[in-house]
Amino acid sequence: MEERLQKLLSAAGVCSRRTAETYLIAGRVTVNGQTAHLGQRADPDRDEILVDGHPLAPRAEAVYILLNKPRGYVSTLSDERGRRTVAELVADCGSRVYPVGRLDLDSEGLLLLTNDGAWAQHLLHPKHEVEKTYHVSVFGPVAGAAARLAAVTDLEGEPIRPARVEVLRETPGTAVLAVTIHEGKNRQVRRMCAQCGLTVKRLRRVREGALELGDLPPGKWRYLTQDEAGALGVTP
User: Fold this and answer.
1) Do 151 and 188 belong together in one domain?
2) What's the confidence (pLDDT) of residue 56?
3) pLDDT in tens, 9-37
4) How many Cα neighbours within 13 Å face the side chain of 106?
5) Whole-angstrom Cα distance, residue 86 to residue 99?
6) Is 104 tagged catalytic?
7) Does residue 176 share a domain with residue 218?
8) How far apart are CA 39 and CA 32, in angstroms?
């Protein structure tokens, strides 16, 4: 069956779909001896597909991983600045997997990784509204902070959907809040807090859809079951 080359490269574990586009633009992919182009389709059972002159490997078995990302790691497979990456933490999983979304360098908690491009795209698409919950430790004017955060509907001119906010613990000048959002704007929770005059001391993602971080230690990972992967809205 013919499929777009970006999808085939991703499914074979060569690279992400986005990176596959750069491969195609750079002329690194050929189909039956001809340089392939962006948007081209091919059938791996019928066509000879080469990447940098090497045959495309058979479609990799789908892998779904839940990682407890520690602080100090970037959510990429490599980093030109030499910072530690989440790829180092899952190097022993036996497959080339890619982060589904991101947690910034100073954030921690639940991060999903997979080699299933379609599954990842489903989770990232805004229309599916996969909820994410963060436990956020803040200091500053915490009295009424939950209500102020829940009232934020605009970030620097960019509209956002209201968050659900619950106070987990509060002392004079500090609080721990549970913030649930439907979108994944860049550094959204941190920007919301800054807009409300709060300084974030710690930010940890504890839930994504039906998946919870639980007691998985920082830096450790586990495979998702097929039921868990399917519970996020698409059957693998």
Assistant:
1) yes
2) 85
3) 887 778 888 889 999 999 999 999 999 99
4) 9
5) 8
6) yes
7) no
8) 16
**113 and 225 belong to one structural domain:** yes
pLDDT digits (tens, 9 = 90+) for 92-130: 998 889 999 889 999 999 999 998 877 888 888 777 778
Give the mean model confidence (pLDDT) for residues 189-199.
97
Strand-pairing partners, residue 109, are 69, 205
* 236 assigned to some structural domain: no
The structure tokens 């709060």 sit at 198
Domain identity same for 195 and 151: yes
End-to-end CA distance of the chain: 18
Number of domains into which the chain is organized: 3
Catalytic residue (one of 43, 45, 104, 154) = 104
Decide the pairing of beta strands 108-114 and 199-208: parallel
Range of the domain at 194: 131-208
Q: Choose among 230, 228, 223, 201: nearest CA to 65.
A: 223
Contact 90, 101 (CB under 8 A): no
